[in-house]
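To fix ideas, we quote verbatim one protein's residues and fold tokens.
>
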Amino acid sequence: MSHEMSHLGPRAFNHDQSNDAEAEYDRLRDLARQEASKRGQCFGRSKEAYSSGDGAGAKQLSEEGKAHGRKMEEYNRQASEFIFKENNASGRVAADTIDLHGQFVEEAEEILEERIKYAKSHGQNHLHVIVGKGNHSVNHIQKIKPRVEQVCQELGLQYATEDNAGRIYVNLTGGEAVMPEYPQHQQSHGQYPGQQQSHSGGYQQHQGQHQGQQQQQQQQQPDELEQVVNAVLPKIMRKLEKACCVVM
């Protein structure tokens, strides 16, 4: 597992977070990194003990390493849950949108899979996925976006990059990823009308055929967003215990 991370606060949030929220997120990820380091040290010492013929010592050190690994997973689980709730709280994203900022790649994959299941089971025909532009990643490489595209491909779903390169539009019906047009006043809420680049490389003009349903979803009550968070997170967190985390 790779847990090499620097200070993550500002780029992990989609809003003007409080200093306390930023500090809590960084604290949890930092604790996970510390446990990962301790795990590696224990495993290294375990190999040395085994090579020197100390089987009992090697076993004890191996068990200590596994214990640190479990603590690492728990801290990362807490960080993932914390940032998900912060970024996807009512009023911060629309009912048809999920924000994956601050997630490790494997965390983002698990979250997206569960969110798609939830959306489809509740009759939603599309999903906007905020993946970030990779501005703060090493060499400015987007890591969440290709994993989101991979998930869509595995599920047989068409997707398209929106005008904002940090967002992906996913058609949950299995049809063509043609994004509906949004009224001008909705752009301030993170909606982007106009052309989008499809995964095949071409550009498609939006048809607006889903506009009525889109507007209906935009009018959902705030507590429905809370239901999404509460329904999706428990399943995700159980699956993340064995996830291999890669830095966003």
